[in-house]
Design brief:
The chain is mainly alpha-helical. It is built from eleven helices and no strands.
Length: 264
């Protein structure tokens, strides 16, 4: 068994995640790319640490950095799935309303699905796969069921299930979709209100942790160095500056990720 295959076997859920993320290569190929990227990055960071510290022991940091980088970069597929899900959440309301309008105007379900595939960038890719399968002879129920299993969006999964239920029971698809989209809109309105309540404390915490504390801390460190004779070398100052920038970027990413993916 190759190294990459063995590493892949340690992540049993990776295959399904890659399928949901629409990754074209296999699990072993993805693991290989991640392994090599982590290896090169860890070596590069170890060299930078050595240049700053000027001590050979700095290369020991590689044995700490490499497994950390590998696990971190292995989660890139989770980040991609989350990004796709957010983009789909922005389109789900408009795409479903488009479906309702098309169906109420007398267009067949297949043509309505095809219309969504042609008019929406992210969700359109998933509807395009459904359309392609149907054109190749797959029954529409099976094509929808397969899409339910591989979509990263819970909202789209609910919409597709509603279509499937309506087909199996002979109900009106447009009416069923209108019910489910009303629920989704209400849920997104609640998300917006909750985000508004959290935004002010998060902004205050961001100002305190990334601007006020670093500024006061730098001044106190300079005063302490002046009285104690500690030398603030350029590498130390660069590390401090990098740490401050990292904290700021982390808070900005946290605020951005907590923003609800809503367009209604």
């Amino acid at each position: 068994m190759s190294l990459y295959k063995r590493l892949s076997s340690l992540n049993p859920g990776l295959k399904e995640k890659l399928r949901i993320a629409r990754y074209k290569g296999g699990v072993e190929e993805y693991t290989k790319k991640t392994f090599l990227s982590s290896l090169y990055l860890s070596i590069g960071l170890s060299i930078i640490i050595f240049m700053l510290l000027k001590k050979p022991i700095a290369f020991l940091s590689f044995f700490f950095l490499f497994p950390l980088m590998f696990q971190y970069m292995l989660r890139a597929v989770d980040v991609k799935i989350a990004r796709i899900s957010r983009e789909m959440s922005k389109e789900i309301v408009f795409a479903t309303r488009f479906l309702i309008i098309e169906l109420e105007s007398g267009i067949t379900l297949f043509e309505a699905l095809k219309g969504v595939a042609e008019n929406y960038e992210t969700i359109g890719q998933y509807f395009g796969e459904i359309v392609d399968k149907i054109e190749l002879g797959t029954p529409i129920e099976q094509a929808l069921r397969e899409a339910v299993e591989t979509t990263p969006s819970n909202d789209l999964r609910r919409v597709l299930w509603q279509i499937l239920n309506s087909i199996s029971t002979g109900g009106n698809i447009a009416d069923s979709l209108r019910t489910i989209i009303d629920q989704i809109v209400r849920e997104k309105q609640i998300m917006v209100k909750e985000y508004g309540r959290k935004l002010s404390p998060m902004a205050m915490f961001y100002m305190t942790a990334t601007i006020i504390l670093p500024s006061i801390g730098t001044i106190m460190l300079a005063i302490l160095a002046m009285f104690t004779g500690i030398k603030l070398t350029l590498p130390v100052l660069l590390v401090l500056a990098g740490l401050i920038v990292f904290i700021q970027l982390s808070f900005l990413a946290m605020i951005n990720s907590s923003r609800p993916p809503v367009e209604i």
